[in-house]
Each structure stands twice: as C-alpha cells, then as structure tokens.
Amino acid sequence: MSATLRKQITVPNICDSACVKKLKTLLSQYFTMREEANPPSNMSLKARLGRLGISREVHLELYTNNNVEIKASAEVRTSFTSICGELETILKEATNILSSQNVFRVMRAGRINDYMKSISVDPEIDRMVIVTLCDIILDLLVSEKLSQFTHDRKELEDESVGAKLALLEKKYKTPVYRPKAIRDVRELRNKIVHGGSSIAKQEAEFARDATIDIFSLF
C-alpha cells in the first residue's frame, strides 16, 4: 500500500500482553480485522481494518516501543480523521483496565469474583448461584465504567445492564469489552430469576469464564 494518510501516536503500556489482548477484541467488535500472523520483530500487532462504508482498509501498526501508526490510502480521506479518533478511543480503552484501580465497585466485584471462582459447577443450585454472582459482578463493572461519564442516578441505577451498555456505546461513544457476553450472562440470570429455570453446566462455565476474563480486562 502506498499510504498518503498517516497518523502517529504514543499510547503508554499498550504493548502489555493484557492490553494487546483487549485491543484485539475491541477492534474485532468494531471492525473486520485481518491480523498479520508474523509481524516484524519491532511490532506487537500489524492489522488491516475494514467495515461497511470504508472504501479501503485502514492499516494499524503497533510498535514495541508503544508507538502506534495509522495509515490509509487517499480513498478514505473524508473519513480518516473520524476513524483515527475512534481508534484512539479504542487504544485508550485497551489500556484502561479498571480492576487495577482502587474504586469501591471494582473492589466489591473483585471480592465477589474471588468467591464465585471457588464454587463448583457440578451441583445444579451452585450453577444458579454462579450465574447470579457473575451478573452482579458485570453490572458493578459496567456501572463503574458508566460513572466515569455521568453522575445521573437514573442512568447509574438502571436495572438493565443492556441500557447501561447502550449509554456507553451510543451516548458516551466509548468502546466496551465483550458487551455481547455481558448481555448473554444477563439473559442466563433472567432465566433463573424470572423463569426459575435450571442452568446447564456449559452455561455456568461460560458465565464464569467470561466474567473472569472481563473482570481482568474491563
């Protein structure tokens, strides 16, 4: 590619392995991503990004010194600035791992998460407990993320985690790590709370594993 559009930024800590993992997930949520299997030794990630409405792929190169380069051909000139802004937001979110912050909701979620991990998925009742606790953990994390943008009690105390996710993604224009998994765990919780349904072992394992992953990187 003969790149005529180029932007370079520095994102501290972006090359941390956990941040790269989160970055890849976020990019895949908002773009179609083609990752180069064997990037040069001075890069942690080299990928091509596309989606409907973008006439040409945008190239994202993540260097091991935490520098990031965004490149594209002239065909995407009209949307390049907005794409760069979106990518900068995603890159920042990839390094913003809440579980490392000493905040009340995250600390509470951490204690519940530790207890949840100790519960066996074999007994039926325990599977119901696991899913319910997972939903509580994820709601706390989403509420904490939302509190960075608003102090509106109506928004923060909404019982629907889906509504909170929609606010983050649409109103506050911030990417969310694995929003579908968060919504899926809420659906499993609703099966228990509203229908009294049992939870399969595979469903409990999904909720547990997804919640552990999201807590570590949200």
Describe the structure.
55% of the residues lie in helices and 14% in strands. The protein is an alpha+beta fold. It folds into two domains: 5-96, Double Stranded RNA Binding Domain, CATH 3.30.160; 99-217.
Strand content: 5-15%
Largest sheet geometry: 5 strands, antiparallel
Shape: elongated
Give helix % range: 55-70%
Structural class: alpha+beta
Radius of gyration in whole Å, from Cα? 19 Å
Encode the helix/strand succession as letters. Answer: EHEEEEHHHHHHH
Whole-number mean pLDDT: 93
The stretches of 5 or more residues where confidence is low (pLDDT under 50) are none
Per DSSP E runs of 2 or more residues, the count of β-strands stands at 5
Q: How many domains make up the 3D coordinates?
A: 2
Q: Count the DSSP helices.
A: 8
State the separation between the terminal residues, measured CA to CA: 34 Å
Question: What is the spatial order of strands in the main beta sheet?
Answer: 1-5-4-3-2
What's the layout of helices and strands?
Blueprint (H helix, E strand, L loop, with lengths): L4 E6 L6 H14 L1 E4 L7 E8 L7 E6 L3 E6 L4 H19 L8 H14 L6 H24 L5 H4 L4 H11 L7 H17 L5 H17 L1
Antiparallel strand pairs: 1-5, 2-3, 3-4, 4-5
Brief sketch in words of this structure:
The protein is an alpha+beta fold and 218 residues long.
Notable traits:
single chain; about 220 residues; alpha+beta; Double Stranded RNA Binding Domain; 2 domains; 5-stranded antiparallel beta sheet; elongated
